[in-house]
């Protein structure tokens, strides 16, 4: 898939998963969209969801803010761009057969930022990696970065984020 197909498929999967959990889903189309791709509403709770798709094992998030190898500064600038009530939905297609659902995660930007700063043995990273073992020539050689299992998309996780219980 090219990047457009990945993004389109990711948004469709995200919308489907929220709908499966009983959320009403509104999807935006067109140019100049705000920072979210879809809105999910259930029982008086509203989630503004920014969907990120990948077929490479990670999602590039802060690289446009990276200056002089200041990974932590790039994360801070990225975090400042997000409204506090935006939810990030990460959809991963790597090694997923067409007959299976991709892996999906939900997190608040405020939860992703410290994870990005702690990545690569504390150096920080511009990429949120689903699971990555740093090679022997890397600064973080032998360490593993892995998304917390608590971020996996479940109906309970979506509800907890909507009610700020996560």
Number of strands: 9
The biggest beta sheet reads:
5 strands, mixed
Residues in helices, as a percent range = 25-40%
Radius of gyration: 16 Å
> Can you tell me the number of structural domains?
1
Query: Mean pLDDT, rounded to whole units?
Result: 93
Secondary-structure content class: alpha+beta
What is the CATH level 1 assignment?
Answer: Alpha Beta
CATH topology title: Trna Endonuclease, Chain: A, domain 1
- Span of the ends, CA to CA: 33 Å
What is the correct CATH architecture? 3-Layer(aba) Sandwich
Q: Work out the strand percent.
A: 25-35%
Task: Tell me the number of helical segments per DSSP (H or I, 4 or more residues long).
Answer: 4
* Stretches with pLDDT under 50, minimum 5 residues: none
Shape: globular
Describe this structure in words.
With 166 residues, this protein is of the alpha+beta class. The protein has one domain (3-162): Trna Endonuclease, Chain: A, domain 1. The chain has helices spanning 3-20, 71-81, 109-118, 155-162, and strands at residues 24-27, 38-42, 45-54, 58-60, 86-92, 103-107, 127-129, 131-133, 144-146. Helix 2 (71-81) runs antiparallel to helix 3. The protein is globular. The mean pLDDT is 93.
